[in-house]
Amino acid sequence: MPERRELYRSANGDSWFLGREPTSGHAFIIHQPNAPSGGRLSHIELGEFLRDAKGPEQQALLRLIGTLVAVPPFA
Question: How many other C-beta atoms are found inside a 10 Å radius of the C-beta of residue 68?
Fold first, then answer.
Protein backbone atom coordinates (compact mmCIF):
# COMPACT_ATOMS: atom_id res chain seq x y z
CA MET A 1 0.00 0.00 0.00
CA PRO A 2 1.51 3.36 -0.97
CA GLU A 3 2.11 6.05 1.62
CA ARG A 4 0.19 9.26 0.90
CA ARG A 5 -0.28 12.86 1.99
CA GLU A 6 -3.35 14.91 1.12
CA LEU A 7 -2.56 17.85 -1.14
CA TYR A 8 -5.97 19.30 -1.84
CA ARG A 9 -9.69 18.63 -1.31
CA SER A 10 -12.11 20.45 -3.60
CA ALA A 11 -15.49 21.85 -2.57
CA ASN A 12 -17.22 19.01 -4.43
CA GLY A 13 -15.31 16.37 -2.44
CA ASP A 14 -12.59 15.33 -4.90
CA SER A 15 -9.24 14.70 -3.20
CA TRP A 16 -5.67 14.68 -4.48
CA PHE A 17 -2.81 13.04 -2.60
CA LEU A 18 0.94 12.85 -3.08
CA GLY A 19 1.69 9.15 -2.94
CA ARG A 20 4.94 7.26 -2.60
CA GLU A 21 5.59 3.59 -3.07
CA PRO A 22 7.55 2.64 0.07
CA THR A 23 9.69 -0.05 -1.54
CA SER A 24 10.84 1.92 -4.60
CA GLY A 25 10.38 5.52 -3.43
CA HIS A 26 8.46 6.25 -6.66
CA ALA A 27 6.22 9.33 -6.18
CA PHE A 28 2.93 9.93 -7.95
CA ILE A 29 -0.45 11.64 -7.54
CA ILE A 30 -3.53 9.80 -6.35
CA HIS A 31 -6.86 11.30 -7.39
CA GLN A 32 -9.99 10.21 -5.56
CA PRO A 33 -13.18 11.59 -7.12
CA ASN A 34 -16.18 12.24 -4.90
CA ALA A 35 -18.68 9.43 -4.28
CA PRO A 36 -21.28 10.64 -6.85
CA SER A 37 -18.53 10.49 -9.51
CA GLY A 38 -17.72 6.91 -8.59
CA GLY A 39 -14.94 7.54 -6.07
CA ARG A 40 -12.53 5.28 -7.98
CA LEU A 41 -8.86 6.06 -7.29
CA SER A 42 -6.50 6.82 -10.15
CA HIS A 43 -2.71 7.29 -10.17
CA ILE A 44 -1.16 10.12 -12.19
CA GLU A 45 2.54 10.56 -12.96
CA LEU A 46 3.96 13.79 -11.49
CA GLY A 47 5.02 15.21 -14.87
CA GLU A 48 1.59 14.64 -16.36
CA PHE A 49 -0.09 16.16 -13.29
CA LEU A 50 2.03 19.32 -13.47
CA ARG A 51 1.91 19.72 -17.26
CA ASP A 52 -0.98 22.22 -17.01
CA ALA A 53 -0.26 23.49 -13.49
CA LYS A 54 -3.23 25.87 -13.41
CA GLY A 55 -5.60 24.15 -11.00
CA PRO A 56 -5.60 24.52 -7.23
CA GLU A 57 -4.52 20.91 -6.80
CA GLN A 58 -1.39 21.52 -8.91
CA GLN A 59 -0.70 24.75 -7.06
CA ALA A 60 -0.93 22.84 -3.76
CA LEU A 61 1.77 20.42 -4.97
CA LEU A 62 4.00 23.28 -6.10
CA ARG A 63 3.61 24.96 -2.69
CA LEU A 64 4.54 21.69 -0.97
CA ILE A 65 7.63 21.33 -3.16
CA GLY A 66 8.56 24.94 -2.31
CA THR A 67 8.60 24.11 1.40
CA LEU A 68 11.49 21.72 0.74
CA VAL A 69 13.80 24.59 -0.16
CA ALA A 70 15.40 26.57 2.64
CA VAL A 71 15.44 30.26 1.72
CA PRO A 72 18.23 32.26 3.36
CA PRO A 73 17.04 35.43 5.13
CA PHE A 74 18.90 37.68 2.65
CA ALA A 75 17.15 36.20 -0.43
Answer: 6
**Residue 21 CB: number of other CB atoms within 10 A?**
13
| Residue 62: Cβ-neighbour burial (10 angstroms; 0-12, 13-18, 19+) | exposed
CA dist., res. 35 & res. 20, Å (int):
24
- CA 61 to chain CA centroid, Å, is 5
Global pTM value: 0.83
* Residue-wise pLDDT tens digits, 45-72: 999 999 987 899 999 999 999 888 887 7
Which class for 46: exposed (0-12), middle (13-18), buried (19 or more C-beta within 10 A)? middle
At residue 5, the 3 state secondary structure works out as strand
